[in-house]
UniProtKB/TrEMBL annotation:
First-tier enzyme category under EC: isomerase
Similarity section: Belongs to the FKBP-type PPIase family.
Official protein name in the record: Peptidyl-prolyl cis-trans isomerase
Organism: Acinetobacter lanii
GO molecular function terms noted in the UniProt entry: peptidyl-prolyl cis-trans isomerase activity
Keyword presence, Isomerase: yes
Signal sequence bounds: 1-19
An example Gene Ontology biological process: protein folding
Length: 229
């Protein structure tokens, strides 16, 4: 199928003045060529916003038909390298701006949250609220714990939940983010706490995956089910 699509696309590209209205009455060759081009454009939409489409089509047509390039390999490599550097610089700037915005939003949230009844702020910046007291053992950093939890952003978006999965998790208390390691050692078996974790005690300037942006302040409801030495 890939070979057939390429053949039809080459035929289209090699036609100097291909300008036709495509619809479901068009020939199979025209529909296939259009579909191939549309999918390519949609897949690369962000990059193509910064590209001269006429020049792009010219380069595609010349390469597909075996014509000599209008630029040398060195000139093309230079153009691509310059674009890559500019794009990386732009992305880095956007990343830093997002990190700064999240840090300020998190600091404002924690400052306001610290004034609420029942919220305790520790020297590290970790805040917690006791939702349910427990009477069992208190873990150390080396203890193995079993917990049920839900993680949220400060806007209320849930990004992870063992509660929703109905699957409590087990791990060593020192093998998680610093805010968790510190918070777990405040708890007793059977208790349930709400932790408000500043970015520096969570995933910091890097963030985690698509859900947790850089410098995100996180909220976790954690129920400590079991502590093993």
């Amino acid at each position: 199928m890939k070979k057939m699509v390429l053949c039809f696309s080459l035929a289209v590209l090699m036609t100097p003045a291909f300008a036709v209205s495509i619809n479901n009455k068009s020939s199979q060759q025209d529909q296939l060529g259009y579909s191939y081009g549309y999918v390519m454009g949609r897949t690369n939409a962000e990059t193509l916003k910064e590209v001269n489409l006429d020049a792009f089509i010219q380069g595609l047509r010349q390469a597909a038909s075996g014509q000599a390039s209008s630029l040398t390999d060195e000139e093309m490599a230079k153009a691509l390298t310059q674009y890559k550097k500019q794009n990386e610089s732009k992305q880095l700037q956007q990343f830093k701006q997002l990190a700064d915005q999240n840090l300020k939003a998190g600091e404002a949230f924690l400052a306001d949250n610290a004034k609420k009844a029942g919220v305790t702020t520790r020297p590290s910046g970790l805040q917690y609220q006791i939702l349910k007291s427990g009477t069992g053992k208190t873990p150390t950093a080396s203890s193995k714990v079993k917990v049920d939890y839900e993680g949220r952003l400060i806007d209320g978006t849930v990004f992870d939940s063992s509660i929703a999965r109905n699957q409590p998790v087990e791990f060593q208390a020192s093998q998680v983010i610093p805010g968790w390691t510190e918070g777990l050692q405040l708890m007793k078996e059977g208790s349930k706490y709400r932790f408000f974790i500043p970015a520096k005690l969570a995933y910091g300037e890097i963030g985690s995956g698509d859900s947790i942006e850089p410098n995100s302040t996180l909220i976790f409801d954690v129920e400590l089910l079991k502590v093993s030495p």
